Amino acid sequence: MKQTYHPGPLAIAVAASAAAMLPLIWAGVSALRPSAEIFQYLSPLSIRTLVPVQITFDNIIALWTGPFARAMLNSAVVTALTVIVGLVICSMAAFALAALNYRGRSVVFTAMIVSFLIPFDSIAVPLSQVFRDLDLQNSYAGLILPGIGNGLAVFLLRQFFLGIPRELSEAAMVDGLGWFGIFTKIYLPLSKPALIGAGLILFVFQWQAYLWPLLIAPNPDYHVASVAIASFAGQYDVDYGQMFGGAVFTALLPMGVLLVFQRYFIASFASTGSKD
Known about the structure:
Layout: H1 8-31, H2 58-64, H3 67-99, H4 105-117, H5 121-133, H6 140-148, H7 151-162, H8 166-174, H9 179-187, H10 192-207, H11 211-216, H12 225-230, H13 240-270
């Protein structure tokens, strides 16, 4: 029987996507306007709201020749190190919770679940004081350390590891392979979607962080992109042109990463069911 094509759902999806992109498009267009025209065409709405009358690159040039360029580099370095180190730590923790049998494993797993149910912002202030006492203020280590042990990433990897047949581990042990060898030669090669999904969780958590970098790194040399964007709002005026430009450039990188790896991210959640 021939199926009938209904364009309705697709049209709704396209319309919803376009509506979701409008604020980002408007911010990008505003970054190319002279400061006096940024809010001029908001009321009433017209084609000029999204199409600038005059185009200037002064905001973009000022943005990338100022402190924002250093802040973007800091964000890239901090996020990359968080993903790399975090994947090592989270994958090993997940392996210990999924493949090793030891007393108290369920208690450790419960504590890990509780850890990612607590909003990080609720513990950021006391944790920042601990980091100051350890002399980790204004350092890359201070920015990176809270992000490498992500409970949601551990949970995702642990659930994926539970779906790997135990017979593979038992056969490897018979051949003389130890637990570390089983982890690196069996579990990790089979877990590419889950590793990418966990990496995206670590990436998004660190890239969009604002409160923690603001607390632990007040030195402008260690500002990340989100803090640098907020600094465009001064006591007496706001540089909306540079602020909108910074917001757009800050959003483009995670958008590109998510578009490239979205199918792996979806696959990582779709295959986390346990057979145990």
